[in-house]
Amino acid sequence: MNIGIDGFIDSWCVCSIDLKNQLTISTCTDIEDIMDFLNDESRIFIDIPIGLSSKSIQRKIDQKLREKLPKGKKSSVFNAPCRQAVKANNYIKAKEINKKILSKSISIQSWNISNKIKEVDEFLIKNKNKQLNIHESHPELCFINLNNGVPLKNNKKTKQGVNERVSILNKFIKNTEDIIEKNYHQYKNENIKRDDILDAISLALSVKKWSENGKRKITQYPVYDEKGLPFEIYY
Predict the structure, then answer these.
(1) What whole-number distance in Å separates Cα of residue 156 and Cα of residue 211?
(2) I need a surface site. Which of 40, 55, 58, 230 has the fewest CB within 10 A?
(3) Of 234, 232, 233, 231, nearest to 53 (Cα)?
């Protein structure tokens, strides 16, 4: 099973593509619940930082990811907070902790996803057997590569951006627009957006094509953080 996971508000958007190329969209509030229905053969790309900075080991991979993205898309990459900062009770405290440990602050965008970063981080630390199946990824980079390396022109939150991404996905999955509309209306009460579904599909497709595309990933040194989680971004 090929799985793409994109976070939104208080939930996760999960796209699965089976061996027959059948695509399914679902939502889940807890990352552990998602893992319950997956087998050991499942590979997962998730749009969330994995591998966090500490005083002795710093995450440098976000800058490497920006270098892979075209001008105008680099701002979609936020520097991940350090592990201690994601545990803070509020944004002000998180900034103080990050400055103390890494000598730099964090953006509000990074803080807004800190609960999800913490959730995945704690899950992987507790379930080391899952670390080989779950990989950090990035939808913008995935879309570029699904588009034969050509950068996308439009913001994903605009109608033009949605249409552009649907056109790319239609090369691999039939009737993508119908799938997105059906699931958007099914889950919109959970505050899901169309671009959340688009991103999850791009991640799942990138999982499916990962081996045939050369097993691409971005790495750094040190390779692992202080808890043994890898600094790797698959695409």
Answers:
(1) 27
(2) 40
(3) 231
With residue 44 as reference, give the H or E element that holds it.
strand 43-46
Strand order in the sheet with 230-234: 23-28, 11-17, 2-8, 43-46, 134-137, 230-234, 217-224
In one-letter notation, the amino acid at residue 89 is N
- Kindly report, residue by residue over 50-94, the tens digit of the pLDDT: 999 999 999 999 999 999 998 888 888 999 999 999 999 999 999
Cβ proximity of 33 and 41 under 8 Å: no
Domains and CATH numbers, the chain: 1-52+61-76+119-235 (3.30.420)
Of 66, 38, 9, residue with least CA distance to 195: 9
pLDDT in tens, 8-38: 998 999 999 988 889 999 999 999 988 876 7
> Is the model's pTM score more than 0.85?
yes
